[in-house]
Design brief:
By secondary structure, this protein is of the alpha/beta class. Helices cover 30% and strands 22% of the residues. The chain has 15 helices and 19 strands. The strands form four sheets. A six-stranded mixed sheet has the order 3-13-14-15-17-16, covered by helices on one side. A six-stranded mixed sheet has the order 12-11-10-9-18-19. The chain starts with a helix and ends with a strand. The protein binds 2'-deoxyadenosine-5'-monophosphate, fe (iii) ion and zinc ion (ZN). The site of zinc ion has 6 residues, from loops.
Length: 487
């Protein structure tokens, strides 16, 4: 933005002194002010080519904000909204300032205790587990077993029955799921290490024979009225040679009412929020020899470029969470992108930074934002799950009430005192990215959205046969999903 202000005046051959610059920069809608000042100077006093703070002050005094906006609109011949929108934006959950470690392994016991207790509370709230006991007590009795445990190990017997070891603070138990018990066995195939489950069954010697496995689960939620449009994007990868700049420009033109057919423009006119679920830039040093695939090799410059793009989206609230390519700590929860790296973005008044994951409320619609790194682990571990169908993974994570249950694989998890990745509150929308492939599903009333990418296939993705869905943007328009194509 800083550069934008100066560049625009340079292009118009106007010099500005420091005090003018500061006044413009600190103005609420500096982009509007820049354009209208340039217009004012070139039409009313073409001979005056130095803009002083006093001139800016006089101009602002004489010109009401409404006139500023109207001028701007005429200049751009666009459908842009005239009046600033009335946002009811809240950050309901953000781990940026609640993170007390540098993400390195320290004391894991408090982290796992937090996870266990949060999920056990959700499980014992359920009718089936109201009478659950500690594992120690269950193993000392002969009759029914009703326990809540964290999964410690998963293996098979030689006859292909499933053995799941669960533990709580009092002890551990080995649960056997018979492969002829089809329904329970099928459920057990989706169980992963370190999730917390309820087990109903009976004890036979040292084994628990399972009759039912219970997830924390989600109740069906009611549909909420939405009279506005929210746009979901992720994995822009600015700075990469495979970043699709043309498509991203068309996307921005669309939001501003300058691109698309009548129906698309109508949707654009209704856009109030843009949510970005990570990988805003490609970053540096994310994988070996990445520099060969970068057009911008400096991380600050990548974010400055991002600021130039996002600086062109006025009057829409933009919410930005980091991904594994961004300049945040890699271990999840990832704090918001630090200001040191992204000064230009921080200058944008309509942009909000949140952690990964984070829960925000957009006019009462709760959106849980998570980049999706744990999808790699889920796709690798669970039969039938893949990057292509991240909707199935999202559904499973929602039922498990945890965004990244598997500890110690590809998803780095910070050993915090509290586990911030438990899904404590059911969102209206779960918005993810990372896999670069769009998906959408409605599960018990929750919109599950993966917002694809603005990056074409990379060398790495060729090797793994990942075929991205590029520049296809999901929006929730008045409650229902629409896909917009900017290719
Ligand atoms: O991820 C881009 C794509 O590459 C996405 O489909 C996930 C996949 N990916 C990235 N890293 C891994 C690892 N370590 N294993 C398997 N698949 C992976 P991005 O975060 O944009 O690089
Ligand atoms: Fe990505
Ligand atoms: Zn990613």
């Amino acid at each position: 933005m800083t550069d934008n202000i100066i560049n625009k005046f340079v292009d118009a051959e106007i010099l500005l002194d420091e005090s003018a610059y500061k006044k413009i920069k600190n103005y609420n809608d500096s982009a509007y002010l820049v354009d209208s000042l340039i217009k004012h100077m070139t039409t009313s006093s073409p001979e005056m080519m130095v803009l002083t703070g006093k001139v800016v002050e006089d101009y602002l005094e004489r010109t009401s904000p409404d006139i500023l906006k109207t001028n701007y609109r005429n200049d751009h011949k666009s459908q842009m909204k005239l009046v600033p929108q009335d946002y009811d934006f809240q950050i309901l959950k953000d781990a940026s300032n609640k993170s007390y470690t540098n993400g390195e392994i320290r004391d894991l016991s408090s982290y796992f205790r937090s996870r266990y207790h949060k999920l056990r509370d959700l499980l014992t709230y359920k009718r089936e587990l109201k009478d659950s006991t500690s594992i120690k007590e269950a193993m000392s009795r002969d009759d029914v077993v009703n326990i809540v445990g964290m999964v410690n190990d998963i293996r098979y017997t030689k006859n292909n029955h499933k053995l799941i070891e669960v533990e709580d603070e009092t002890g551990s138990a080995t649960v056997l799921i018979h492969n002829e018990n089809h329904e329970v066995f099928e459920h057990a195939e989706r169980i992963v290490k370190d999730e917390v489950i309820g087990v109903l069954g009976s004890r036979k010697g040292t084994l628990v024979m399972a009759n039912e496995i219970v997830n924390p689960g989600v109740p069906r939620i009611d549909e909420k009225p939405m009279d506005f449009t929210t746009v979901f994007i992720s994995d822009i990868h600015i700075g990469s040679s495979t970043f699709l700049d043309g498509a991203f420009k068309r996307f921005i033109d669309w939001i501003n009412g300058d691109f698309g057919d009548e129906q698309q423009r109508e949707i654009a006119n209704n856009v109030k929020y843009v949510v970005v679920a990570g990988d805003i830039v490609d970053g540096i040093g994310v994988y070996p020899h990445q520099d060969k695939e970068l057009t911008i090799k400096d991380i600050h410059e990548q974010y400055e470029e991002a600021a130039r793009y996002f600086g062109d989206i006025p009057n829409v609230k933009i919410v930005v969470a980091p991904g594994n390519h961004d300049a945040s700590r890699l271990a999840e929860p990832q704090p918001a992108i630090p200001e040191d790296y992204a000064k230009g973005l921080y200058e944008l008044k309509n942009l909000e930074f949140v952690s990964n994951p984070a829960m925000v409320s957009l006019d009462g619609i709760k959106v849980l934002i998570y980049h999706g790194r744990s999808f790699d682990d889920m796709a690798m571990t669970v039969k039938g799950m893949s990057h292509q169908q991240s909707d199935l993974i999202m559904k499973e994570l929602l039922e498990k009430r945890h965004l990244a249950p598997i500890y110690g694989e590809r998803t780095p998890l910070a050993s915090e005192i509290e586990d911030h990745l438990v899904i404590e509150e059911i969102p209206d929308v779960l918005h993810t990215g990372h896999v670069h492939i769009n998906s959408y599903k409605r599960h018990k009333g929750v919109h599950l959205i993966n917002s694809g990418t603005f990056q074409s296939q990379t060398e790495f993705q060729k090797i793994y046969n990942i075929v991205p869905t590029c520049a296809q943007v999901p929006v929730i328009n008045k409650g229902s999903l629409k896909m917009l194509d900017f290719n």
